Amino acid sequence: MLYLGALFLAKVLDNALSTTKTILIQRSRWVLAGIAVILSDFLYFWVTKRIVSADSMLALAVVVIGGGAGWYFKIYRPKKQRAAESEADYGSEYDGSEDYDETAPEDDGPPWDEDGEE
């Protein structure tokens, strides 16, 4: 059971390192990005070797669930949190139809005639 827990944590850590690598590349931190790539590749190949040698569907299922957990924590959950923060800051979805009157006579002309000269 401890072995399967180690596989699970290794896969989650592999996902986290992959995201870290992307962020470091965007921030031009090339050396740290290289270290993240090395660690991520090591974990990926370590997990892959363990799954192939285990010849167990349970080990494969644990790694798949670990990948899903990593995806949840690095992509889905932060996206939902940002959306909730955004809604709290700006209110619900914009419905400005009551603030906008399409029949306002001063807006009927082209923009170059705004000063009223004809």
Oligomer description: single chain
The backbone outline, from C-alpha atoms, is elongated
The SS-based structural class is mainly alpha
Q: Low-confidence runs (pLDDT<50, min 5 residues)?
A: none
Average of the residue pLDDT scores = 77
In DSSP terms (H or I, runs of 4 or more residues), the helix count works out at: 3
Kindly provide the radius of gyration, computed on alpha-carbon positions and rounded to a whole number of angstroms. 26 Å
Instruction: Name the helix and strand elements from N-terminus to C-terminus, one letter apiece.
Output: HHH
Strand element count? 0
What separation lies between the terminal Cα atoms? 84 Å
Residue fraction in strands: under 5%
For the largest beta-sheet, the strand count, sense and barrel status come to:
none
Layout of helices and strands:
Layout (H helix, E strand, L loop, with lengths): L1 H25 L3 H25 L2 H34 L28
Structural description of this entry:
- Helix content is 71%, strand content 0%.
- It is mainly α.
- The termini are far apart.
Short description, anyone?
The chain is mainly alpha-helical and 118 residues long. 71% of the residues lie in helices and 0% in strands.
Salient structural properties:
118 residues; mainly alpha; elongated
